[in-house]
Specification:
Shape of chain A: elongated
Largest interface: A-B, 39 and 51 residues
Helix content of chain B: over 70%
Number of domains of chain A: 1
Number of strands of chain B: 0
CATH topology of chain B: MetI-like fold
Structural class of chain A: mainly alpha
Oligomer: heterodimer
CATH superfamily of chain B: MetI-like
Strand content of chain B: under 5%
Number of helices of chain B: 12
Order of helices and strands of chain A: HHHHHHHHHHH
Largest sheet of chain B: none
Distance between the termini of chain A: 15 Å
Radius of gyration of chain A: 22 Å
Radius of gyration of chain B: 24 Å
Structural class of chain B: mainly alpha
CATH class of chain B: Mainly Alpha
Low-confidence stretches of chain A: none
Largest sheet of chain A: none
């Protein structure tokens, strides 16, 4: 029931964001120079930022970009973690030890610091779209070690399962066993890992953006929208500045409750 | 295997991990597409000739082996070389900032733990309403560190310690709650309750000794969480600590400082990881 409510809430948010973007006359980058830092009006429902860009449209675009980017990055990271975990579980012990050591090297540095380091080393002249892609690719590329450890432990437990031994005895090759038997069993591990990664990546992007290392302007993102909170002139004029953070919390709570429910029932 | 050997093996592995983290940082920084990017490239006042000179300057530090040899030499000389950004010895730069960050970390972690334990102990013993009581921590988990820090500045309430404590508390509460819930439901606890032992006695004599090994592992997690949050917190609150230095080094591609900060962070994470070893030691004792 909770899972269904969370999914419906998320769908409503996404559909709402798509409709807002579709009906907006100028898009997320259009500037209304006559009404910069404007409060609520019939034209701009939640006001505008310091460049006169409509906040409703930008928040909607940030929601879609954040959700799409984080989902793609989470899918990529789960795939990497799955391959890594399976490779470690089905390799000779010294290879497994080496692979686990490699994941430990990644885990030996705080994730946000590692992300910040990798993200900031891109060229200074990257386009906004490139920065968006780079941000989420970096998230995917550095987010796998913890997932891989979980999948490795799960796969290791399944490796010695009776049906695996019987499969081997029946002459099935490792690839067939993994594809036909192991992956369906691991789905209960892979799906929660994927769902946990989505809100984690959204939060990471918001933190990177708040440090000036996220998605580049004029593309809207949660991180760049949070930077608006530093503008005291804007804060004094309108309370709608808090809309992005409020919406971000709602999205994250919905995603987390959905992930928790799936994990509980898996 | 007896525990001194286990400790020695773990320490060796931690040392290897730290060295690999430093080597990985060097490789990451050196092979990143923007390693040779220079903010001066964007400045129109630099003539093409000056750009060529900058390229020549970059080519002096081109190969990984050159960088590695230079780093090893600096390390053996008892330092980490000179900061490219500040033109000051890296050891001096970091040394001055460590006490500030360590104090912030210690206060934040202790505050977070107190908050999480004080909330988790009563909530875990509840039969109903636990989800509602956990709601503040669930909401805190959904707020990015940077947003939490900005909110603190805007409301003029609290500071970096409060943000760090709230973050650690939000992360640890979830684990502590499930850990303590399991402990409260164990048969010997049920019997103790049936015999009329007070909750205080139960917690002191039965719950805490049983969950101690897991608490050690949770301490490691708290330290890693706090270290990760150190950068945005110090940057937003302009605390001149290691986190702010790391951010400045990242923004200016200051490789010697980055390697030193990575080594420091890997050391803290590595030795914090060794805290989780208490479980086999306790069992052996």
């Amino acid at each position: 029931m909770k899972r269904r409510i969370a999914l419906i809430a998320l769908l409503l948010l996404v559909v709402g964001a798509v409709l807002v973007l579709r009906w907006s006359p100028g898009g997320y980058a259009a500037q209304d120079r006559d009404s910069t830092m404007a409060p609520f009006s019939a034209q701009h429902w939640t006001g505008t930022d310091e460049l006169g860009r409509d906040r409703t449209v930008r928040v909607s675009a940030a929601l879609l970009i954040g959700l799409a980017g984080a989902t793609a990055a989470a899918a990529l990271t789960t795939a990497i973690a799955g391959c890594f975990g399976l490779a470690a579980a089905f390799s000779p012990s010294w290879v497994a030890a080496l692979l686990i050591f490699l994941s430990d090297v990644f885990l030996s540095l705080p994730w946000l610091f590692l992300l910040m380091m990798a993200r900031s080393l891109l060229p200074l002249t990257a386009s906004p779209l490139d920065t968006a892609v780079a941000t989420f690719v970096v998230l995917a590329a550095l987010g796998w070690p913890a997932c891989a450890r979980v999948i490795y432990r799960g796969a290791l437990a399944l490796r010695s399962a009776e049906w695996m031994i019987q499969g081997h005895a029946c002459g099935l090759r490792t690839r067939q066993l993994v594809r036909l038997h192991l992956l369906p069993h691991l789905r209960s591990l892979l799906l929660p890992q994927f769902l946990i990664c989505v809100p984690a990546f959204i939060v990471a992007e918001a933190n990177l953006g708040a440090l000036g290392l996220g998605v580049g302007e004029p593309l809207p993102s949660w991180g760049s929208m949070l930077l608006e909170l530093d503008n005291s002139a804007l804060l004094a004029r309108s309370h709608w500045v808090y809309l992005p953070i409020a919406l971000l919390i709602i999205v994250l709570l919905t995603l987390e409750s959905f992930a928790t429910e799936v994990e509980t029932h898996a | 295997m007896n525990w001194p050997v286990t400790i020695a093996m773990r320490a060796g592995r931690t040392l290897l991990l730290i060295l690999c983290a430093a080597a990985g940082t060097t490789l990451l920084v050196r092979f990143a597409p923007g390693f040779f990017s220079d903010s001066r490239e964007m400045d129109a006042k630099y003539a093409p000739a000056a750009q060529d000179e900058m390229d020549a300057e970059h080519s002096q530090h081109q190969t990984v082996s050159q960088i590695a040899i230079e780093e090893a030499r600096n390390f053996l000389a008892g330092g980490f070389g000179m900061s490219r950004q500040y033109r000051v010895p890296v050891a001096e730069l970091i040394g001055a900032r460590i006490p500030l960050s360590a104090l912030l970390l210690a206060r934040g972690i202790i505050g977070g733990w107190l908050l999480a334990i004080c909330a988790a102990l009563p909530v875990s013993s509840l039969r109903k309403g636990g989800v509602l009581c956990s709601l503040p921590f669930t909401v805190l988990l959904a707020i990015p560190t940077a947003a939490m820090a900005t909110a603190c500045i805007l409301s003029e309430l609290g500071g970096p310690v409060l943000v760090l404590a709230l973050l650690v508390a939000a992360r640890d509460f979830k684990f502590l709650r499930s850990l303590l819930e399991g402990a409260w439901r164990s048969p010997h606890l049920l019997q103790g309750r049936a015999l009329g032992l007070s909750p205080r006695v139960l917690v002191k004599l039965h719950i805490l000794p049983n969950v101690l090994p897991q608490l050690c592992a949770l301490t490691t997690l708290s330290i890693v969480t706090a270290l990760g949050a150190l950068v945005p917190i110090e940057v937003i609150f302009t605390v001149p600590g290691v986190g702010q230095l790391a951010w400045a080094a990242v923004m200016n591609r200051d490789l010697p400082v980055l390697v030193a900060v990575s080594l420091l962070m890997a050391c803290v994470v590595g030795f914090a990881g060794m805290l989780s070893m208490r479980a086999p030691i306790l069992e052996a004792a």
